[in-house]
Amino acid sequence: MITTVVTAPISGQKPGTSGLRKKTRVFMGRHYLENFVQSVFDVVDAAGKTFVLGGDGRYFNDRAAQVILRMAAANGASRVIVGQGALLSTPAASHLIRLNKTDGGLILSASHNPGGPDEDFGIKFNMPNGGPAPEAVTEAIFRRTMEIAEYRILEAEDVDLSRPGRSRLGGMQVDVVDPVADYAALMESLFDFAAIRALFASGFRMRMDSMCAVTGPYAKEILENRLGAAPGTVANAVPLPDFGGMHPDPNPTWAHALMAEMSGPDAPDFGAASDGDGDRNMVVGRGIYVSPSDSLAVLAANAHLAPGYRAGLKGVARSMPTSAAADRVAESLGIAQYETPTGWKFFGNLLDAGRATLCGEESFGTGSDHVREKDGLWAVLLWLNILAVRRESVAQILAAHFARFGRNYYSRHDFEAIDSARAEALFAALRAALPGLKGRSFAGLTVEAADDFAYSDPVDGSVSEGQGIRILFGKGARAVFRLSGTGTEGATLRLYLERYAAGPEGLDEDPQQALAPVIRAAHEIADIAGHTGRSAPDVVT
Ligand code: VG1
Ligand code: CO
């Protein structure tokens, strides 16, 4: 029986950088999830459609999945493909959407944000191309949440999601699928598994930290079962509703156990970590951290060593705050380079149009045209493929890369949980100061240009404004200021810092040291301490 429930708009259901993210208890509140899901189904017209559904396994994932299934049935969807246990990593969901030519999918995740009843939950709609809904669609969904008056839901028992199989829910077909199988097959089609197997067989050791999040089952199957990495290579391999109380964010601060192991006396050759929903990656060599911007550049320069990219790359795209290291590679390869706003949704058009093959963000996101999301394990496997062919250490590969292209010293400083009004005031003052900054000097650096980044999509012509304040000091030095669009409390100021060293001297400095003048200049220009009361960041990557 289909019930039509009377509801009323709930304020604040506006998707941010990557879907709608709120405190879990907010999502569990009366009509909250239902209002948003109905708004999605209204905007995309769910009748007769097929969707993919799954999430990162965090607290409320299983309940939310059952509600969405019953609402999909009540809205006339013809079929939902759902991961066993309601689990799907974000890249695996993107792949299933594409593989099955569905009309899109719903992904339940707050990504790298902690999970649990007192932490965060999230939901995101992806399009038939497998990628996050573009701004026009998320805006339409948001508008719908502000006028919603009722939602439809089927009265029914829970669907058994504990094993693969086909069942019916009202008039809708439900296919429960193994979350790993199709994804693993895709990876096998892109990379030289035989070469990577031989690498592991030669004694190469790796640590993969899945951080009690969704990549555990994927990493175990691919790295240990198919590639022959030693049993136990994957740590924290069982997805838990609260991620074991950890913060599933693969950066040096939150993946500290991995960092400690990689700099310890018995460090493996290669280390990696992934986030809550499996779209981020951090890679670490023995005693050496690879910054995400450098990782993108190294992958672009070496991708041809993997079978899936042997024909070469069409182009490389990076988000604006990501360092220009990848640009130098694109230039030397003679391929196009694109600079987009933060958030994977901006890469979709470039990938669909065949203009870019690799994409990346400084926030530990790397991916390619094999799906329409960033993909943590994909990046780990491409690194492994490169290591298997070159048979050099991560440190050697990085050193050779810097010697050839120069080094873009890079760091991001996050100032978290700032009072929102104070953060707004900082940006208002910074924007007001922009026209007068050119030619002025701060901490010995002279501003060559300063603007508020706006992006014109070269494929559909859409324009996105207000995407981050850029202060360019010339010679590849710059500071970028943005406010996070994924947080659920207060504001997070992100300060992105970059400085280029052409070499051959000065390629081996500590990044914080190398960036010290840029850091000082950025603090002076924005008066971070004056506005926020903070002089030091909470997280440095
Ligand atoms: C952050 C990152 C951004 C990334 C986004 C989603 O957004 O900076 O690069 O695309 O998270 O990643 P923001 O607005 O907080 O800076 V995930 O793995 O959280 O889906
Ligand atoms: Co993520």
Automatic annotation (TrEMBL):
It is an enzyme of class 5 (isomerase). Its EC number is 5.4.2.2. The keyword Hydrolase does not apply. Its cofactor is Mg(2+). It comes from Pseudogemmobacter humi. This is phosphoglucomutase (alpha-D-glucose-1,6-bisphosphate-dependent). InterPro entries: A-D-PHexomutase_a/b/a-I, A-D-PHexomutase_a/b/a-I/II/III, A-D-PHexomutase_a/b/a-II, A-D-PHexomutase_a/b/a-III, A-D-PHexomutase_C_sf, A-D-PHexomutase_CS, Alpha-D-phosphohexomutase_SF, PGM. One of its GO terms (biological process) is carbohydrate metabolic process. Keywords: Isomerase, Magnesium, Metal-binding, Phosphoprotein. It catalyses: alpha-D-glucose 1-phosphate = alpha-D-glucose 6-phosphate. SUPFAM superfamilies: Phosphoglucomutase, C-terminal domain, Phosphoglucomutase, first 3 domains. Residues 13-151, 182-284, 293-405 form the Alpha-D-phosphohexomutase alpha/beta/alpha domain. Gene3D superfamilies: Alpha-D-Glucose-1,6-Bisphosphate, subunit A, domain 3 (3.40.120.10), Alpha-D-phosphohexomutase, C-terminal domain (3.30.310.50). GO terms for cellular component: cytosol. One of its GO terms (molecular function) is phosphoglucomutase activity. Belongs to the phosphohexose mutase family. PROSITE patterns: PGM_PMM.
